[in-house]
């Protein structure tokens, strides 16, 4: 009987230790998940900023091209008036 009680106590202690380790691993997984989420948000924010910058550059270039075409058209029109 004493041997069974000792075995039972040892088993309970081992189970408690495993449960404690499991809780620790769960906390680590939550921390890793939060870090991944944070990193993904940072990358997404950077990518949005980069694409916005490229879009603005493209729009500025397009605006310059249109203005250049308009100036050329105005000069050509003025040449015909003379």
Defining traits:
single chain; 82 residues; mainly alpha; 1 helix; 0% strand
What does it look like?
The chain has 82 residues and is mainly alpha-helical. Helix content is 98%, strand content 0%. It contains 1 helix and no strands. It has one helix at residues 2-81. The radius of gyration is 35 Å and the shape is rod-shaped.
Report the biggest beta sheet as strand number plus sense, adding barrel if it closes.
Answer: none
Whole-number average pLDDT?
Answer: 91
Number of helices: 1
The shape is rod-shaped
Cα end-to-end separation: 120 Å
Model regions low in confidence, pLDDT < 50 over at least 5 residues: none
List strands and helices in order, with pairings.
Elements lengths: L1 H80 L1
Care to give the gist of this entry?
The protein is mainly alpha-helical.
